[in-house]
Design goal:
By secondary structure, the chain is of the alpha/beta class. The chain has helices at 15-26, 46-50, 69-81, 93-103, 123-135, 147-155, 179-189, 210-221, 238-247, 263-268, 285-292, 305-308, 323-335, 337-354, 357-386, and strands at residues 2-8, 32-38, 56-57, 85-86, 108-113, 141-144, 196-201, 227-232, 254-258, 272-275, 297-300, 316-318. The radius of gyration is 22 Å and the shape is elongated.
Length: 387
Amino acid sequence: MHTVLYPVNELRIGGAEQQLLELVRGLDKNRFRPIVAPLYPGGPLDAEFRAVPGVEVVDLGRRGKYDPSPLVGLAALMRARRVDVVQPFLSPATFFGLLPSLLMRVPVKIITERCGVRRSRKLGYKLYRASEDWLSRYADAVVPNSGAGRDLLLERGIAPEKIQVIYNGVNRERLRVDWATAMSHRARLGVPDDGHVVGILASLTPAKGHETLLRAVAAAASRRPGLRCAVIGDGPLRPQLEALAVELGIADRVVFFGNQRRVADFLAACDMLVSASRDNEGCSNSILEAMALCVPVIATDLGGNCELVEDRLTGYLIPVGDHAALAATIEDALAGSIERQTIAARARQMIDSRFSLERMVRDYDSLYTRLLHEKRVRALQVEAAAG
C-alpha cells in the first residue's frame, strides 16, 4: 500500500477542496492510504473529510501567516508515515509540502495547479509563487485541471513533459435534487409564475465578479420584472455586495443564501447559472455541476471557462466585466426557451461523457502508479550500477 499526503491550506468550502474530498473518497483504499494535512485546523469540510473511511486528517496547527511550523510538522509526518507521494493543494500549502518532501526524499512529488495565478498579487503571494516555481523543477509532475492551467504553467517555465491535465470530475451523488426544497428556495426569492432565477455559485471575493452580475440584473430589471437573483456562497465582500444591491434598487430581487453544501437544490431552483469570474479560472466546479443538472450557463470568456462553454453550443460566453453584455445575454437566453433547453441538454451530454468523477480518480490512480513504477525502476538501475 502506498501512502499519499495531501497538504492543503484549510478545509474550507471551495472548488479545490471539494475536488480533493472527491479524490480521497474515490481512491482505492486497498492500494492507497490518503492523509490530508491542513495548515489551519477546523474548517467547514473538516467533518466530511474525517468521515471518509480509510482517510486520516492531521492538523498542522499553523498559528498565523508568519508561522513556519508546518515545515517541521510535515517533515515529521513524512518520516513517521513513510510517505510515498506528496501532492499539495493551493498556495502556500504547495511551498510547505514540497520543501520538506525534498529533504525527506519522498519518492514522488506532485504539484496541483488550479489555474490560480492571480492577476492582482500581493507581496506574500508573489514570494510563495516564486518559491513554488523554483521548487517545481524538482517535482515529478504538475497537474492543472484545464488546458488554460497548462498554458499558464508553460508561461511560468514548467517543463512540458511534467505537465498532465486532469480535469475535475462531477460527483452525481452530490447532485441529487430534493425538488420540494428547490421550490422552497424559489418561494424565498419571490419568483412569480412567469419569472426566472439567475444564480451564481461562488465565494464572495473580487475574482468572482458578483458586482457584474448585480449590475446586469439591475439593467434587465425594468424589462423583466419577474427576474430574481440567487447568490450562493459567502465571503468578505458580502456586506459590500448587499449594499450594492440596495444602491441599485434590486435588494428585493436578490437573496444572499450564504455557503451551502446541498448545492443541487439551489442550482435546481435556478433557470440559469452565471459564472462572472474576472480572474483566472481553471475547471469550474459550479459550471460543471450546473451543466450536469441541465441548468444553462453564462460564463466569462476567460481561462478554462472556454473549455467547458462553447458559445451557443454548450452555454453562453460574455466579455469579462461587461454587465451590459451579461444583461443582454440573460434576456436573450430567457427569451429563447427552446434554444436554451437544447444548449443545456448538449452541455449535460458533454459532462456525462468527459467529466465523470470515476474518470478523474482513475487518472490520478494511473499517474501515481506510473510515477511510483518509474521511481522503482530508476532506483533499481542506480543500485545495479553501484553494485
